[in-house]
Amino acid sequence: MTARRWVNRPEGSNWGDFGPDDQIGRLNLLTPERRRAAATEIRTGETFALSLPLDYPGGNELFSLRREPVFKHEKRGDGHNFNFRLSHVCSEFCDVVSDDAVLLYLQYSTQWDGFGHVGQMFDADGDGVPEKVYYNGYRGGTDIVGPDDAERGFGAHKLGIENFAIAGVQGRGVLVDLEATYGRQRALIGYDELMRQLDAQNVTVESGDFLCLYTGFADLILEMNRKPDGDVLARSCAVLDGRDTRLLDWITQAGLVAICADNFAVEAYPARPAVGDSFPGLPLHNHCLFKQGIHLGELWYFAELAQWLRANGRWRFMLTAPPLRLPGAVGSPVMPMATV
Ligand code: UVW
User: Fold this and answer.
1) Which of 23, 95, 159, 180 can pair with 116 through a Cys bridge, CB separation 3.0 to 4.6 Å?
2) How far apart, in whole angstroms, are the C-alpha atoms of residue 203 and residue 255?
3) Listed residue (176, 186, 159) closest to 310, CA to CA
C-alpha cells in the first residue's frame, strides 16, 4: 500500500475511502452477498442481450471522433489468412481456416467508460496549480499516458479497464423505464423526475445495484439502420441532468455501482450552462468517473428486456457485464446480459 497521492481531494469525492491505491471505486460495494441477492432475481432463466450490434450507430455523425469498426486480414501465401486451405502447408490437410482483426474504437457502440476516460484539471498536490488528475488522484501524463508522452509507455497504467474486467461485474440491475413516461420526447431528468419515476415503478435502488436507464435512444438508432440523423438524435429521448446537484447527491448516497443507459452519454451533452470561471462540461461524468468511481455504460440496448419486465411487473434482474480485459484501455465494448 502506498501513501495517498493527493493533499486536496475534490469536494463531493470519495477518494481514499476504498484505500489509497483503489482502482475500482464503487464496485467495492458489489460484495458476494450483493451478488447472491442478485441471483435471487433469476426466476425463469430467460436471458436478454443488452448490446447493440457493434457496427451501430453507423458512420460517425453521432460523434465525429469515433468511427465504425474496420476489419482487416493478414496476408498468407498468395491470398489472406481467410478461407485459407491448410493443404498449402501440408498437402494432406483438408482444413480451411479464417482469422480476422479489427480496428475498433472502444467507445463507438455499446460500451463501458473506465475511470481513465474523464478526469479534471485539479490542484491535488496543493501547490496552487491545477494538474491533470483522475479518480483517486491518479495523474495524467504519469499514470494515464497519451501518445504525446509516449516515451513513458502509452496507456492507462493505472485505472485501466482491465481492473474493472476482473472485479466480478455481475450483480442486480434495476431498470428505470423512462421510455414509458416520456416516449421519445427530449426530457431532462433531474432528481425530482427520477424519484417520481422510481415511485411510479415502486422500485428502489440499493447499495451495490446497477442503475439501468431505458430511454428508447438505442431503439431509434437501430431504426435509423446505420445512417443516424444527428439532428433528430440530439432532440430525442431522456437524458440525465448532470447539473442537478440533488441528483448528484442522490447518486452519492444511493450506493449504486454503475449507471448504464441506452443513450449517447447518460447525461445531457452539452449540459445546461453553468456559472463560474471553470466547471466540468460533462458534470455527471465528472461526478461519477472522477469523484465517486462509478462506471458509466452507454448505448446499451434495453428494448426487449423492458418489454418483458413490463409484462411481468418486475424491474430487477441479474446483470452480467464485464468489459474486455484489455490492459491500458480507458473504455471497452461490452456484451451485457440480463437474466430474469
Ligand atoms: C464523451 O466524450 C461525450 O464521451 P461519452 O461517450 O462518455 O459520452
Assistant:
1) 159
2) 15
3) 176
Give the distance (Å) from ligand 1 centre to CA of residue 30. Answer: 25
Residue 148 has pLDDT above 90, yes or no: no
- Domains of the chain, first to last: 25-61+106-116+158-339 (3.50.30.50)
Amino acid (1-letter code) at residue 280: P
Residues 148/149/155/160 CA torsion (nearest 10 deg): -110
Q: Which of 285, 286, 288, 330 gets mutated to test ligand 1 (max ligand atoms within 8 A of its CB)? A: 285
Cell 424491474 belongs to: 315
Counting from 1 in the atom list of ligand 1, the atom nearest the Cα of 285 is: 7
pLDDT of residue 92 exceeding 80, the answer is yes
- Report DSSP state, residue 21: T
Query: What's the grid cell of residue 299?
Result: 448505448
Tally of CB atoms within 10 A around 93:
12
Report pLDDT for 1.
57
Q: Counting atoms of ligand 1 from 1, which one is nearest the CA of 266?
A: 8
Assess whether pLDDT exceeds 70 at residue 250. yes
- Looking at ligand 1, which atom is closest to the CA of residue 107? 6
At 73-84, the pLDDT tens digits run 999 999 999 999
Nearest CA-CA partner of 112 in 71, 169, 57? 169
